[in-house]
Amino acid sequence: MRLASAPLRRVCRQHRALSTFVERDVVILRQKLNQDNIIVTKPLNPANKISTHKGDISHADIIGKSPRDLVTSSAGHEYRIHTITLAEYVSLTRRLVTPIYPADANLIVSLFDLHPSAADDAEKIEVLEAGTGHGALTLHLSRAIHGANSQVPKPAPASESVEDQSLTESGNGEHQSESDNTLDAWKASRKAVIHSIDISPKYSKHAAKIVAGFRHGVYAGNVDFHVGDVSEWIKSEHVRRDSEEPFLTHAFLDLPATHDHLSAAASALKKDGTLIIFNPSITQILDCIQKIKRENIPLLLDQTLELGNNGSSGGKPWDLRAVKPRASSKNQPTEAGSEPAQSSGSESLNESITRDPAQALKEAKPEDPNWTFVCRPKVGERITGGGFLGVFRKMKDTARP
């Protein structure tokens, strides 16, 4: 009973917090007579107000109200107050880069098939996100693993007495050190963590702010933000852990030159772990497949999916495989103008790339001009989409390169 009571208390506390809006909440206002007129507030502060062309709305008038209550602007226009959803939050908050839209983020999370557990004997989940960007996928991933971790410890309240604070400055330092030690101990005990890395300090800082701004940072404690090159970070993690063993459960790469980081990512990925790469172009996915073949990287292409456009639902499967025309396999020249990749008389490496890549690496040489690629939607015509996902599986454990 004691094991079940703590999560229940946390749920009850969150329910009470959401029953009325409090300071630091972010809410959505929709004009009563025009639902398309949407306002996303900054964190509520009783001293602040929202200025619109239809009058000002005081934050103090929102605090204490419940979801779907009405608030009136200074010009007499009514707005309905709504609790902001995660999908609305990542789509409507200020951005420095284009976010991964909620439908795509949900698809990516589902492909990882995460099953977090807070049990003492549960294996720790560590997910790498390379290319933090806006922080949209970061939030979705953090929400997915949230059940594995206990509540972030709150810092002990500092003394509000000016007299007490003036007695000794070292006391404040000791208090801060104690809080830091408590937080460090909690982080070390986490059963699930998202490692989110971006090459840009500006983007990483903004994404951390986005994550911390959703529902008082409820999911922020699950994420460790890093700035730098992902391959170098992986090497440094091996050194820090003093181990060559893979430590990542899954990984997601959203980078301009993804193929340059495949080897490092594979070295850190546990056996049967999922590596998902996002690229705007299908040819970039092909570059990654060729890199895997050329360097014998132990990754198995499981599927290739096309994402939707402008946040629409995606996941359209593509047929992506290497083939050799049967005439070439018999050392016979092919006719000019033929399309061997789509010929019914071709010898396919589909099984070796998407089912048994180890055998493919032995049989197919990337420099062999007779090998080519099938690259087409599996059903119907190609629809302009928001990019492509290559979903790979780690085949075997390997030493760090």
UniProtKB/TrEMBL annotation:
GO annotations of cellular component type: mitochondrion; tRNA (m1A) methyltransferase complex
Any one GO MF annotation of this record: tRNA (adenine(58)-N1)-methyltransferase activity
UniProt-listed InterPro entries: SAM-dependent_MTases_sf (IPR029063), tRNA_MeTrfase_Gcd14 (IPR014816)
EC number assigned by the record: 2.1.1.220
Ranges for region Disordered: 149-182, 311-373
Polar residues: bias regions: 164-182, 328-352
GO terms (BP aspect): tRNA methylation
Keyword set, alphabetical order: Methyltransferase, Transferase
Organism superkingdom: Eukaryota
Enzyme class: transferase
SUPFAM superfamilies: S-adenosyl-L-methionine-dependent methyltransferases
PANTHER family: TRNA (ADENINE(58)-N(1))-METHYLTRANSFERASE, TRNA (ADENINE(58)-N(1))-METHYLTRANSFERASE, MITOCHONDRIAL
Protein name (database record): tRNA (adenine(58)-N(1))-methyltransferase catalytic subunit TRM61
UniProt organism field: Aureobasidium melanogenum (Aureobasidium pullulans var. melanogenum)
Organism lineage: Eukaryota, Fungi, Dikarya, Ascomycota, Pezizomycotina
